Every structure is written in structure tokens, then in C-alpha cells.
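Backbone Fold Data
Goal — C-alpha cells
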Amino acid sequence: MDARELAAKIDHTVLGPETTLDDVRRVLDEAAAHGMNACIPPCYVAEAAEYAPETTLATVVGFPHGQHSPETKRAEAVAAWEAGADELDVVINVGRLKAGDDDAVRAELADLVAAVPVPVKVIVETALLSDAEKRRAAAAAVDADADMLKTSTGFADGGATVPDVELLAEFLPVKASGGVGSYEDALAMFEAGAERIGASSGVTIVEGHPDVE
């Protein structure tokens, strides 16, 4: 893919606990300058949508641990969409999944997906799961009619890996997120089957493309 196509597949991200509105505006400026999307905290969505209306804007739901009540997650998703979010990245309830309560995971996701008319990416948090658990999480997302799977929040130990992307891509399109810091890292994820990259290093990734001088 050329540099423009690459940029369109990157969610340039700022989600740390110290993120300020100035940080968000910087990321939005960088995203706009390079043709990337942006992924920002939900508290800034309304301001971001007004500041950069042409930039595809993603935000997070149930972040970073996924342990909000289903009702809270649903309300958060609706509020983010109404504030101007174009896409939602939702953290599964890892504890429910590990306990074998797949029905609760599936029901929570299905209710949320049905509540909003925008794409929903399901954050699996692969570093915390066995391969069998990753498959169960992915199957729940498919059953819930989610649009995409995302590897990681970036707040657990470990991030996106080639084997995890390959596994998840068997189920849905994949956003590789967590530890993708260079063009070479991103290329490995795309070759493994990822269709989107989530990274705070979006500018570095795009500028690492061979076509960019």
C-alpha cells in the first residue's frame, strides 16, 4: 500500500490518564496532516468533533479494564456517539470471559452494538488470555454483530503480536494495538492480517513508509 493508504488505516492514539485537551488537539492536528484517524478519551469527544470535523474519530468504552456494568457501558457508548464519535472501541469484561460466562460477555456486547449506529471494535486484551479464551472472546464478538476485533488497550502487559492478529483475523477484521511503534512493526501486523493499526506513534509509522521523504 502507498503512504496515503497506510495513513488511512492508522488510528493515531492518545489515551493516557494525564491526557489533556491540548494533547488531543495535537493528535488531531497530526492525524489531519497525515490523513490518519484519531482515537481519544471519551471526555474530549464533543470538543474534538467540533475541532476536527473531517477526521474520523474513535473513542473508548469501558476503558481500560472492561469491568463497568453493562448498563454503564451502553450509556457510555450512546453518549460518545451522540457527542460525535464515528467509531467505538469497547473493552470486553475479561473476568467474565475467564470465568466461563460467555453468555454475559455476548449479551453485553450485543446490547451495546444494537444501541449505536456506528462501528464497534471489541478490545480482547489478548495479553491476558489463552488462545482458547481469545477464540471464545472473538466468537462472542461475532455473535454480537461487532465490526472489528482489537488486540489490546495498551494498559496491560504486552500488546499486539503477529500470532494474535493471525488468530483474531479468522473471526473479524483486526485492529492491532499496543506496542506498534514503527513502520516495520505496522507492516508485520498488516502482513499477519490486520486491517487497522492503533498507535500513539502514528506519525512515526507513516513517515517510515518508503514513499515518504
About this structure: The mean pLDDT is 97.
